[in-house]
Design brief:
This protein is of the alpha/beta class and about 775 residues long. It contains 27 helices and 23 strands. Helices cover about 45% and strands about 15% of the residues. The strands form 3 sheets. Strands 15, 16, 17, 18, 19, 20, 21, 22 and 23 form a 9-stranded mixed sheet that branches. Helix 1 packs parallel to helix 4. It is globular, with a radius of gyration of 30 Å. The site of magnesium ion has 4 residues, from helix 20.
Length: about 775
């Protein structure tokens, strides 16, 4: 083969640019025949019954579906042996299976390679020639390499039999916000800027005037929406409107449209060219946050176009038609799209573009509206009267069958009922059956969580992720702006402990206005305290803001994220002292906070013994700790299935921290996801951990669990778990404990249902 790499890239590029699975597989088999000069290339998929079904072929004669029964034929030899089979003459092989009417008899050589996805054989790619001469080594290697890529490029549906009816059609996206919603589809925009076609203006001066009127009216519309939403959302989120307004005042955008109009283009076309230009510019940026900003530009373009449409042809989208729960769907969904739907009818959000990091996802989480992002092409959905949106699994189920609908409705109803019962525990302490008291705190970062936190019985804020208010802004917040946000939290949790964590950005958390890009391995890079110590002005402003916001009637804690060395801790303490002295010198009477470290980096565990006099408390960030102990990124779909935070190494390490904290008399809490995983909570109780911090929606369920077990039971279970060498057995052990003790009823409930509360609460982000 002269240039196999180029041929490989050509095929993969072609396949990945095609939209439908059938086009992709046909292009693939065609491409292989050309690339390695074979007479036949066929792709088979393994079906549920173990048969091999022909998906696409170039060269075989196919007049009806071809199926090779399980255990028969060379294709199955390849699948079961999990290795290539490259032979001169297929018919001479003892396992040869002649597919009737395929005219296969004229092809002699056979080379089959397995297609594997996540460790499972899902199909076989076969190349055949009329000559009785096996494929050369390069061609075989080409097929093997291609097959390894295919499992990643070709969507799963190419390997799934077509459904006869479209009932229960599932579209897989990414979970944007948890929870389940049932409703009809509401397309937020049927006509967008993308539908605009090229047209010319008659008089560019007139068109320029129209452009400036359009700018003015769009700004006025945004301000009006901001004013309406301002009553429901805090300044943190209505800041997104400020971003739109800023873009609308940006001279580069204004002048770009002007220059397109002057070139003779009609306003909509000039707008489309300009928006596409800027959106492409952002999309090409390496940094994921800046890339996500291209969405903002597109949203704004659509917004401008909608205003233009309303001015010119009057195409207002009738919201009066909404009289029952809807799932708001669209390629891009803006804050104002969300705002225009009557709150009581907005059940869920299905976004065909976007990612879990988009503003839409942040907002949906804050509002407690289940959301699925990145669902793919909007054109695949026609108007559908019934949809189930499952924000937990990231799925959209179209036209659910009665059975599926009933199952979801039943679960929702029983979850609501169970949560009603759990809510009764709000003012009850989280106390074990043998009288041991556990403190229940909430994890938050949005002011919207304050109300649900208090409603669910949080006794304080165990983790305030300060990066969230930083993330939903367009610039670093000033000291006063931070004080205003932190003060809201302190006011709400008067007299209670609040743990403010200093800015924890880097890795998967990026700021839209300060990209940390160009790192080969961001998870091990400029993150958490490493970043803020190198940007000491940001840290100083923040520490001052936290201290100034805290009145002396809150129990103020400052948490340091991602600490991995004593030096970082010392530097932070020196900065804190300086901030405190500055505030005293300014005539304030500041409260000196308690200082603690997040145990997220494994090195911090061994260092703990040196830190007795440097810290006042410890908080285990089990999310990052698990990621670094297991060297597994749980946001990476390829390895997510291997991630389980009840892994024996994690349980053992946390146990080690708990034992050290106890002997050093240091208060200890857990604030990662482990603290709200019922199976893990019993083990944490067994380790003597008495402070847990979690999303407020999970508090009632975990409180109920704690009130149902004794510390003796928990430490017995821990002892058994510590003897096990794998996560699966630890989970089974905990599950058995829960079942044996009749605790399943309140454990298997979907905690996100608690967020349904938002529908009757005042929304405040
Ligand atoms: C953690 O790592 O467990 C944690 C609580 O921090 P975050 O999830 O914000 O990284
Ligand atoms: Mg963390």
């Amino acid at each position: 083969m002269p240039n196999s790499l180029q041929a490989l890239v050509n095929i993969l590029q072609k396949v990945s640019h095609l939209n439908s699975a059938s086009e992709q597989v046909n292009a693939l088999v065609h491409g292989v025949c050309e690339a390695i000069n074979v007479d036949v290339c066929s792709l088979y998929r393994l079906d549920k019954s173990g048969n091999m079904r022909l998906v696409a072929t170039q060269g075989l004669s196919v007049n009806h579906p071809i199926k090779i029964p399980q255990g028969r034929g060379l294709v199955n030899v390849v699948a079961t042996s999990k290795r290539p089979l490259n032979i001169d003459d297929a018919a001479l092989h003892p396992d040869y299976f002649y597919v009737i009417f395929s005219k296969e008899e004229k092809f002699h050589s056979f080379c089959g390679v397995p297609l594997v996805r996540r460790g499972e054989v899902i199909g076989v790619l076969v190349a055949q020639r009329t000559q009785a001469c096996k494929l050369d080594a390069d061609s075989e290697a080409f097929l093997v390499t291609l097959a390894s890529h295919l499992a990643l490029v070709i969507p799963a549906e190419a390997f799934t039999p077509k459904k006869k009816s479209s009932a229960n059609m599932r579209h897989q996206g990414i979970s944007g916000a948890p929870g389940v919603a049932i409703g009809s589809l509401w397309h937020c925009k049927k006509i967008g800027l993308e539908d605009v076609t090229e047209s010319l203006n008659d008089d560019h001066r007139l068109e320029l005037e129209r452009w400036h009127i359009l700018l003015k009216e769009t700004k006025a519309g945004i301000k009006a929406e901001q004013a309406i939403l301002g009553q429901q959302l805090s300044a943190e989120v209505t800041g997104i409107f400020d971003a739109y307004l800023m873009l609308l005042s940006d001279q580069t955008l204004i002048e770009k449209v002007e220059s397109e109009v002057k070139r003779g283009h009609a306003l909509p076309w000039a707008l489309k060219l300009s928006i596409n230009y800027f959106s492409k510019l952002f999309r090409s940026m390496e940094d994921p946050y800046l890339r996500a900003r291209s969405e903002d530009i597109s949203h704004l373009g659509n917004k401008l176009y909608q205003v233009w449409l309303n001015q010119s042809v009057g195409t207002a989208h009738s919201l009066a038609a909404i009289t029952a729960p809807v799932i708001l769907a669209g390629k891009h969904i803006t804050v104002s799209d969300i705002a225009t739907i009557p709150k009581r009818y907005l059940a869920g959000i299905a976004c065909f573009g976007g990612s879990a990091l988009s503003h839409t996802a942040v907002l949906a989480n804050a509002l407690g509206i289940p959301a699925v992002m990145g669902l793919g092409d909007i054109d695949r959905l026609e108007t559908i009267d019934k949809l189930i949106l499952d924000g937990n699994s990231g799925q959209l189920i179209c036209r659910p069958s009665d059975a599926v609908l009933e199952a979801y409705q039943k679960t929702l109803a029983s979850n609501r009922e169970i949560y009603q019962q759990l809510k009764e525990l709000r003012y009850e302490p989280a106390v074990t059956t043998d009288g041991c008291v556990v403190s229940m705190f909430s994890n938050t970062g949005l002011l919207a969580d304050i109300l649900p936190g208090l409603k669910n019985g949080a006794q304080g804020v165990g983790l305030y992720r300060t990066e969230i208010p930083f993330m939903i802004r367009q610039t670093f917040p000033s000291e006063q702006e931070q004080i205003d946000v932190y003060r809201e939290v302190c006011k709400a949790y008067k007299g209670k402990p609040v743990y403010f964590r200093t800015l924890d950005i880097g890795g998967d958390k990026q700021l839209p206005y300060f990209a940390i890009s160009g790192e080969e391995n961001p998870a091990l890079g400029w993150r958490g305290i490493r970043f803020t110590l190198d940007n000491i002005q940001i840290l100083m402003t923040q520490v001052r803001a936290i201290i100034r916001a805290a009145a002396d009637d809150i129990d103020l804690h400052i948490l340091i994220p991602m600490v991995s060395s004593t030096d970082e801790l010392d530097q932070f303490r020196a900065l804190l002292d300086q901030a405190y002295e500055q505030l005293v010198a300014e005539g304030l009477q500041p409260v000196y906070p308690k200082v603690g470290v997040m145990i997220e980096v494994p090195s911090a565990i061994s260092l703990l013994k040196y830190w007795r006099d440097k810290i006042d408390f410890i908080s285990i960030g089990s999310n990052d700790l698990s990621q670094y102990l297991l060297a597994l990124d749980r946001n990476n779909a390829r390895v997510a299935g291997r991630y389980d935070h009840v892994h024996p190494s994690i349980i053992n390490e946390i146990h080690r921290v708990a034992t050290m904290a106890d002997s050093m008399k240091l208060p200890l809490s857990v604030c990662g996801e482990l603290a709200s995983d019922p199976m893990a909570v019993i083990l944490l109780l067994g380790m003597g951990i008495r402070k847990l911090s979690m999303s407020s929606s999970k508090i009632p369920q975990i409180k109920w669990l704690i009130r149902s077990v004794s510390t003796q039971q928990a430490s017995n279970l821990l002892a058994e778990a510590l003897a096990l060498d794998n996560s699966k057995d630890i989970r089974l052990l905990c599950r058995k404990f829960i079942e044996d003790n009749g605790l399943t009823k309140f454990i298997d409930v979907d905690a996100s249902i608690a967020k349904f509360n938002h529908l009757d609460a005042v929304i405040k982000i």
